[in-house]
Amino acid sequence: MEPAVDKLEALFQKxxxxxxxxxxxxxxxxxxxxxxxxxxxxxxxKLLQRMNQAKVQFKNLAEQARVIHSRQQVMEKSDDEQxxxxxxxxxxxxxxASSELSTDEEDKENKTEGTENKTQxxxxxxxxxxxxxxxxxxxxxxxxxxSELVRGRAKLQDVxxxxxxxxxxxxxxxxxxxxxxxxxxxxxxxxxxxTGEAKLKVLRALKLIVINNKLAVKMA
Length: 220
What we know:
mainly alpha, rod-shaped, 2 strands, Arc Repressor Mutant, subunit A
């Protein structure tokens, strides 16, 4: 067994020696040939050497790039964790505070609107206080509180015209008796017919005048 191993080892040594000889021979011949022609850069041996050097350099650069990339990933992960620990809770606190502030403002606005609406409703439902010395016309809100069946086709402007004439008449003639439809017609008022009677009925519904069974009118 040992002679066979020794023989195989001798063959390897001879092959290695032959390869070294061939390599040296090629390098010498190519160097001499391309040096004589001034084309040393085209020497295949030199080209192979530069290619091998470039491979080694590229491998080293690739390894360095891999190491740098790994470090960047570690740093980015660390920065992300730090951001989540510091910035995100701060953002959440700000959003929560903003939401609470917005809710408080909405509550205040709702309360203000509610107060204004309540005041407006109270103002709308509050009856108009009229004296006997100053004429205050019926406004649209009062007019619309009267049933449509009572208002009929009477218009607010016409109702106020009748009311104003009657108000000033009884103010000037404090001891005047009730006015009949005929009396009011002489005063230029249209109080006959369905629409004319509706004007008087609106004033009666608002408790501004009193109408007796003979349709005679006086101030309430």
